[in-house]
Amino acid sequence: MRDFAQGIARFQQDVFPAKEELFTRLAVRHAPHTLFIGCSDARVVPELITGAEPGELFVIRTAGNLVPAYTPGADGVTASIEYAVAALGVRDIVVCGHSACGAMTALAHGHDLSGAPAVADWLRLADASVARTATPGDVPALVRHNVLAQLANLATHPSVARALAERTVTLRGWVFDIATGRVEDLTPDGREAVPAA
Ligand SMILES: [Zn+2]
C-alpha cells in the first residue's frame, strides 16, 4: 500500500493550521450548501474543481456518476441523497460528468464487461442514455445525455421531488474536461422543474 504518512504529516503541519478556525467551526456544524454527485474517477476531484472548502460539498461519487431512479428499499445512494436534501437542506444539486469517463466509454463502445458483472449491471442504469445517443461510440454525447438523465432520475427521489416542488433546491448538470480543466454547464439557468427525460 502506498505510504500516506508523509501526506498526512504535511496536512497536519501545513494545511490544518491554516484552516484551524474553519475546522473548529466544522467540528460542531455540518451545513453544506451543495450536493455534488460525481464519478468515482480519481481525476475528478470535486473540491479542487469548484474551489470549495471543507464543509461546503456533500459528495456522492459513483461509477459513471449514475443515480438510480428511486425505488423503495435500502440503498446507499438514495440514503445519501435524502440525508443531504431533507436533513442538511442543500440548496443546489450538481451532477458532474467528465471527459474520458471509463464507464461511458465502455457503454459507448460496447466493451465486454463479462469479467465485471456488477459493473455491467450498474451501467445498465444508463441504457436510456445510450439509446438517446444518435451516433454509436460518441462518448462526449453520451456523457452529456447521461448527466441530464441523472437529473431526471434525481427528481424521482421523494426528498428531491418535495424540494423541487417547494423551489428550495436547484438541479445542475456539468461536464468536466480533464485535459483543459473546463467545466461545461449544461443547465446554465439551473433546473427548477423536472427535466425532460
Ligand atoms: Zn467516469
Computed structural class = alpha/beta
Bound molecules: zinc ion
Note poorly predicted spans. Answer: 192-197
Shape designation: globular
What is the subunit organization of this protein?
single chain
Query: Could you say what the CATH topology of the largest domain is called?
Result: Beta-carbonic Anhydrase, Chain A
Helix content: 40-55%
Backbone CA Rg: 18 Å
Could you tell me how far the N terminus lies from the C terminus, measured between alpha carbons in angstroms? 43 Å
SSE run:
HHEHEHEHHHHHEE
Q: Which homologous superfamily in CATH is the superfamily of the largest domain?
A: Carbonic anhydrase
Structure description:
One of its GO terms (molecular function) is zinc ion binding. It comes from Kitasatospora aureofaciens. Zn(2+) binds at residues 39, 41, 98, 101. It catalyses: hydrogencarbonate + H(+) = CO2 + H2O. Its EC number is 4.2.1.1. The chain has two domains: 1-30, no CATH class; 31-185, Carbonic anhydrase (Beta-carbonic Anhydrase, Chain A), CATH 3.40.1050.10. It starts with a helix and ends in a 12-residue tail after the last strand. Helix 4 runs parallel beside helix 9 (158-165). The protein has a five-stranded mixed sheet with strand order 2-1-3-4-5. Strand 4 and strand 5 (183-185) form a beta hairpin. The chain has 197 residues and is of the alpha/beta class. It has helices at residues 5-18, 20-26, 46-50, 76-87, 102-108, 117-123, 127-132, 139-154, 158-165, and strands at residues 34-39, 57-62, 92-98, 170-176, 183-185. Mean pLDDT is 94; it is low at 192-197. The structure holds zinc ion. Zinc ion binds at residues 39, 41, 64, 98, 101-103. Zinc ion is lined by residues 39, 41, 64, 98, 101-103.
